[in-house]
What we know:
Elements: H1 28-42, E1 50-54, E2 69-72, H2 78-88, E3 93-99, H3 100-106, H4 108-117, E4 121-127, H5 162-168, E5 173-178, H6 184-194, E6 198-204, H7 216-219, H8 224-227, E7 228-231, E8 238-239, E9 245-250, E10 255-260, H9 279-287, E11 295-302, H10 310-313, H11 321-332
Parallel strand pairs: 1-2, 1-3, 3-4, 4-6, 5-6, 7-11
Antiparallel strand pairs: 5-11, 8-9, 9-10
Helix pairs in contact: 1-6, 3-4, 5-9
Amino acid sequence: MNEIPTPASLTAKDFSSDQEVRWCPGCGDYAILKAVQKTLADVGAETHKTVFISGIGCSSRFPYYMSTYGFHTIHGRAPAIATGTRLANDDLDIWVVTGDGDGMSIGGNHLFHALRRNLDMQILMFNNEIYGLTKGQFSPTSRPGTRSPSSPKGSEMPAAHPCSFALGGGAQFVARSADTLQKHMPEVLKRARAYPGTGFVELLQNCPIYNDGAFDEITSKKVGADHAIYVEHGQPMIFGKERDRGLRLDPRTLTIEVVALGEGGASEADLLVHDETNLTLAGMLSRLEGPDFPVALGVLYCAPAGVKSEIDAHPVAGFDAAAASDAVRAMVYGGATWTVD
Ligand SMILES: Cc1ncc(C[n+]2csc(CCOP(=O)(O)OP(=O)(O)O)c2C)c(N)n1
Ligand code: SF4
Ligand SMILES: [Mg+2]
């Protein structure tokens, strides 16, 4: 049991638990853990008012390493537990941690409906494009051709895109960052936390054991600027180490194209300007990928605040959260339990 420090003194370290971290050396999960702990300290979060709820996977071990409340639940079901938690306690800051397998395979249906409901919580999807915990099988987000124990000749399936999936489910806040982006990630996480609904964040995460280097081009200090575009509301879409390329909309085909800036090329005035309230634009950005396009990082979509959650819009008549939690407590401690030694 960890001590509960007073909020005024909380640092990133105070959000770290006393549990031994069991991720492999070099796993991107460490960097995400660090960024989340920093985010919570920065925003003045309180350990006893924060809960991390996960499914199953390497990523889903996350709650053990936080000195907050936590549930390590069952495969793909974290959104259901988080929904119940939200209904029972309006005061908690709720974070769901899921993986590309947990959230997009077995938990796809649950995740989809959680996004539709838009209850106030953050959902972080650690996307390493592989099933890490079960020794490296290809996942729904694995790129075609991925060789793995379950696809020895290379996966033939098209890759699913978590941010596109989230937008399709009606998510009101959708963003993307990556494990090594220690300045970018906390800012994105803060935006998700501040959003008064479900903040969905895809975090590109390196698995050095089973899918090493999947995002090297995007996160590399040397070439990352050529393979990623950091979108910012109200700013023209420029990228490249020399900031010499941009994204332009071809109005005839309604597609995004990469253009060179400067002499003989396009000018800044020709470029798309990011509008994070534009759902159509967010959909296009969510699908950009290499080698022809940079991957979009940042807040892709943030619906104008005031969109009501399903619960706000359709309150459950007569729902009594206290009575419901008493009933659950009575069931859990009601006799048919056992002790595991
Ligand atoms: C009902 C059920 N089916 C299958 C499994 C096996 N299983 C455990 S974790 C996992 C996939 C995890 O992948 P992901 O969510 O991407 O997490 P990662 O380990 O990559 O972080 C699977 C298939 C399980 N534990 N329970
Ligand atoms: S298998 Fe991959 S995702 Fe899992 S802990 Fe090891 S490096 Fe991280
Ligand atoms: Mg995974």
